[in-house]
Amino acid sequence: MSILSNKKKVFHVALRGESILTNPHFNKGTAFTINERKQFGLVGRLPYQVNTLDEQCQRAYDQLLSRDTPLRKNSFLQSLKEQNSVLFYQLILRHLKELMPIVYTPTEADAIANYSHLFRRSEGLYLTLDNQDSMEEDFLEQIRGRDIDLIVCSDAEAILGIGDQGVGISTAKSAIYTLLAGIDPMKSLPVVLDVGTDNETLLTDLVYVGWRHERVRGEAYDQFVDKFIQLVRKHLPHSLLHFEDFGVTNAQRLLELYRDKHAVFNDDIQGTGAVTLAAVMSAVGVTKSTLAEQRYIIYGAGSAGLGIARQLRDGIVQIDGISVDEANERFYLIDKHGLIKESLGDLIRPMLREFVRSDKEWEGIPTNDKGEIALLEVVKKIRPTVLIGSSTNAGAFTEEVVREMAKGVDRPIILPLSNPSRLVEVDPAKANEWTNGKALLATGSPFPPARMPTGKDYIIAECNNALIYPGLGFGAVLAKARSLSDSMILAGAQRLASLSPALKDPDDALLPDFSDAPSVNFEIAIAVAEKAIAEGTSNVDWGGEEVRARGKEMQWLPIYGEYVYDENGEC
Ligand SMILES: NC(=O)c1ccc[n+]([C@@H]2O[C@H](COP(=O)([O-])OP(=O)(O)OC[C@H]3O[C@@H](n4cnc5c(N)ncnc54)[C@H](O)[C@@H]3O)[C@@H](O)[C@H]2O)c1
Ligand SMILES: O=C(O)C[C@H](O)C(=O)O
Ligand SMILES: [Mg+2]
């Protein structure tokens, strides 16, 4: 257990003076007590007043409000994190709904795009292909003395919907694990796998902090990633390895390659699939139908689109008890080449095979000059009940598409999930207007409520993987699971769906509000850990009622403990 866990009342710390003040994991700033100041050589290094955490939060919040743009607020919070992590997490938890969009989508997209310009202090582990000879040494240096439970890594090729960013994302995703699930920040490790970038803006930017080299692909890339994963397996065999925002050619492939060898998890595929399944379960609860009764269009068949299709399909099979082939029949995937159908040939990624439609089914349907079938034509022919966007193609769900869909179903389920907000396939307020308030909506980034024809507000649920991945990961870590299996993920998604406000009131949001995300993720974690224990993938000898108590005990909360100077203590 780390030094900062509030479960341990007294901490023995070996740092003194400047070194404790400049270490964000130990620093309390003006909250060091008189007694601590004397022991740690801080009396002359701090102003006279001793503040409480409440007072520090108030001051930090006032300072934050004086920053006038979301990006400046993001920079301020990043600095705070580099100074005092208890204060950083405590402040955000107190204003979760307001500050999530600052530290996460949509502002994180701007922060990542400007990473080199905003850069002040390094955080986590930077592994660069050019330095791979010293990878093990660099890795061990960074994890020295720490008991790491969770690693979040990214090669930054497909950051949200903004593409290749060279470096960035792992730290933001890692902080969300602490914020929403209580993973101890000392026990998580954000990792940048820098294999170069094809982003011309970065390559020609004089202050770019990453490796100025074209993105390495193929065998050299695979060897580099493998070297890293073998180090994780060797030195941190019980950790959970989270993959984030890898490009579409690598994401699923790496997941398949390593899922039997280590506890790995791809958030864009599995986390997005799970949160979307929960949202659709909630929506079919409102329409009093079943998952199997729906016709699904998934617009944007990349990592997220494929993960969503597979998770929904598996949900249909498990929950409604039909065969995999029958369930696959309910899906129509659309990519930048239009409807995924046989005649696209090599343009279809092998992983999409099970969802390919036959050409015969589409004979006589209008195409463009390349023989591609557009979204509107698919909507007209199949009369979807569920339309999901994971395409990065802003505005693709046009008024015509939405109105056409609404002709075929009383309550269209429309989930435009692309991030950040500016890339959303349809503004939910517009979809609400074009369907006279009938659409059941959820988006990937936060949006304001939509006004219903009745004058009431309809809350737009945020269908973002952050509502589930911290709980999935925490549950796996809690149960010391050897893998994060499909059934554990399904258990998490079902628990999330069971917490949906729409279950109680069909006019309410499809998913819990982000202000409840910590308690929601805790419930997800319990469901995941219980499943791991039940299916024998866990490495703990307890279960039943104890799971919840153990979960509470393991959670890190941002509260100061009392420090005692001890030259043999933690540092
Ligand atoms: N809400 C969430 O939790 C969540 C999770 C993951 C990803 N996303 C979002 O989903 C989007 C896609 O992410 P990804 O990781 O799958 O990226 P990706 O690059 O793997 O996939 C994008 C897919 O969209 C397709 N596409 C691009 N332009 C298109 C067009 N004009 N018409 C149809 N299809 C088109 C591409 O061919 C590609 O297959 C991003 O905006 C991302 O932020 C949201
Ligand atoms: O990071 C997010 O906000 C969600 C998701 O992982 C994405 O890539 O868009
Ligand atoms: Mg992502």
From TrEMBL:
PROSITE patterns: MALIC_ENZYMES. GO terms for molecular function: malate dehydrogenase (decarboxylating) (NAD+) activity; metal ion binding; NAD binding. The keyword Oxidoreductase applies. SMART domains: malic (SM01274), Malic_M (SM00919). The keyword NAD applies. Residues 81-259 form the Malic enzyme N-terminal domain. Divalent metal cations. Prefers magnesium or manganese. Residues 269-533 form the Malic enzyme NAD-binding domain. Its cofactor is Mn(2+); Mg(2+). The active site is at Y104, K173. One of its GO terms (cellular component) is mitochondrion. (S)-malate binds at N419, N464. A divalent metal cation binds at E244, D245, D268. GO terms for biological process: malate metabolic process. Keywords: Metal-binding, NAD, Oxidoreductase. PANTHER family: MALIC ENZYME-RELATED (PTHR23406), NAD-DEPENDENT MALIC ENZYME, MITOCHONDRIAL (PTHR23406:SF34). Belongs to the malic enzymes family. This is Malic enzyme. It comes from Multifurca ochricompacta.
